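#onboarding

Welcome to the new folks! Below is a worked example of what a typical request in this channel looks like: someone posts a single protein sequence, and someone else replies with the predicted structure as tokens. Don't worry about understanding the tokens yet, we'll cover that in week two.

Example request:
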Amino acid sequence: VKDVLILLAVVVLSVVIPLHFAGGIGDVFGQIAQTHSEMLTVNPGDYDKVWWTTSLLISAIGCGFLTTPHLWPPLLAAKNGRVIRSNNTFLPMYQVVMILPIMLGFVGVLALNPNTSSNAALLTLAGGALPNWALGLIAIAAASAAMLPAGAICIGISTLASHNLVKIESERTKLRFNHLVVIAAATVALVLGLTRPDLLANLLLLTFGGLSQLAPGLALALPQQPLLAKQSVFAGLLVGMLTVLVVTVFDLDLAN
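Example response:
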């Protein structure tokens, strides 16, 4: 239901908003090419070719080696290998749909005040192009699309905490601890989302960069006889995470 709702919402918005604000999809790109041509290419600056290439590389490493814990439950719960192969075949196709929100972002550049909050851009555009009842459906679709991945992430966090950080023998106590961790994690995320959404996004990127340090250990553990001891993997993970933290906190420019 979530997938159907969000896909319908994105398709409807991608047709209605460009028509309402710019005259159509072709007109959006035509106007962007004339007024903001730099947005159609990778330019020098904070988000240059080096940033673009390394971001794609670290994302490929993290996804390819399944270093993010919220990707593990669907893999471990699959009833057979065919399910996993099917997921790996069709899930990447979702990335093709990313062009639609990018296009809506271009409409926002053309139609909205530059001082408009980026987090409010889509709802502002939808509110100007749709009646209130349709805007309500869009909001429900967006909320459901956010809650389901958040639920998977909370399960990953709580399971790791109860099985690895804290050793609990009683299954009942372990379940209660899981619940407490979910409540704590969701509360922190909600507070950060309301008060410091920029910090929450940066924390997500930092976490992804840190977890990608697991990739070498996972790759070298694939043979029948693992090529590294757990101490070596932990040491590499620690050094990698410290490197990510130092580069992020001190804003170091590794490209130069």
